[in-house]
Design a protein that fits this description.
Layout (H helix, E strand, L loop, with lengths): L1 E3 L2 H11 L5 E6 L5 H13 L2 E6 L9 H6 L4 H10 L4 E3 L3 H5 L18 H4 L3 H16 L3 E5 L3 H13 L5 E5 L19 H6 L2 H12 L5 H13 L4 E10 L15 E9 L2 E9 L2
Helix pairs in contact: 7-8, 10-11
The chain binds pantoate.
The site of pantoate (PAF) has 10 residues, from strand 2 and helix 7.
């Protein structure tokens, strides 16, 4: 695996190696786990050169304490990438991406940014849009891979690429889960044993929602979800939303012509976890 820290070094390498080759790209913030490896597997299958970036993007953290706390596991990450057959790792520092101006561009994502995470994490998606646009411009991939766990981010990246006419296909990949269904996330490591065991309830509730949607109203399901989390003292539900996939607008009744998902954001004491599931009915 080649490792580059600067745009110039990365581009010099890609310019000489990418002729007639398909480049696949996975942007990450490090703290890699099996979920990232599953993206890389798909990327390797569909491309000639796989590029992964590790960059903890300061402009997407609304809370500076979260940025400081973000796990930095570069040595372990490089080992994981090596054994998962990554071709190129791009690991720039903040100056390389932002020069002296560490601010996010303001984007119009046609309202996608107003929903769910957007209500609770001010400026987060402008930060994501800013860094992903810059990384797409630097790496110039044919395809880029994002996990469906962060479904709102996936839709926002698609919108950003479309609005900026970036010639990249944004590929959504199924959420990779632990054996008990908990979506893989770097945050899972910060859960206590009790929190970790109880956290499997999130996916159980989502799966039950996918069943209940056949026979129950959205209002009834919302009440049921809220009560389920109240049974555990350390969970605090931030939101449970059933939304249309394209617009992410909150649904109150379902139209058979549209595709929907159920989304959860919940605190297990201090750790915020998110997950979602596709609904077919
Ligand atoms: O999902 C992430 O890890 C980040 O939001 C991303 C897409 C790498 C942008 O910093």
């Amino acid at each position: 695996m080649k490792v580059f820290y600067t745009k110039v070094a990365l581009n010099t390498y890609l310019d000489t190696h990418k002729k007639n080759k398909q480049i696949g790209f996975i942007p990450t913030m490090g703290a890699l786990h099996e979920g990232h490896v599953s993206l890389l597997k798909k990327c390797n299958e569909e491309n000639d050169i796989s590029v992964v970036s590790i960059f903890v993007n300061p402009t997407q953290f609304d809370n500076p304490a979260d940025l400081l706390k973000y796990p930095k596991t570069f040595q372990d990450d490089t080992k994981i990438l090596e054994s998962a057959q990554c071709d190129v790792l791009f690991a720039p520092d903040v100056k390389e991406i932002y020069a002296e101006n560490i601010t996010a561009t303001s984007f119009d994502f046609d309202g996608l940014e107003q929903e769910m995470e957007g209500r609770f994490r001010t400026g987060h998606f402008d930060g994501v849009g800013t860094v992903v646009k810059r990384l797409f411009e630097i790496v110039a991939p044919n395809k880029a891979y994002f996990g469906e766990k962060d479904f709102q981010q996936l839709q926002i990246v698609r919108k950003m690429a479309e609005k900026n006419h970036l010639p990249v296909a944004v590929v959504g990949c199924s959420t990779f889960r632990e054996d008990d269904g908990l979506a893989m996330s770097s945050r899972n490591k910060r859960l206590t044993d009790d929190e970790r065991n109880a956290a499997s309830i999130i996916y159980k509730i989502l799966k039950k929602t996918a069943e209940k949607i056949q026979t129950h109203s959205i209002d009834d399901i919302k009440k049921w979800v809220s009560n389920e989390f109240k049974k555990h003292s350390f969970f605090e539900l931030e939101y449970f939303v059933i939304a249309e996939e394209e617009t992410l607008e909150n649904a109150t009744i379902l139209s058979p012509k549209k595709q929907y998902r159920a989304f959860i954001a919940v605190y297990a004491n201090t750790i915020r976890l998110i997950d979602n599931i596709s609904l077919t009915y």
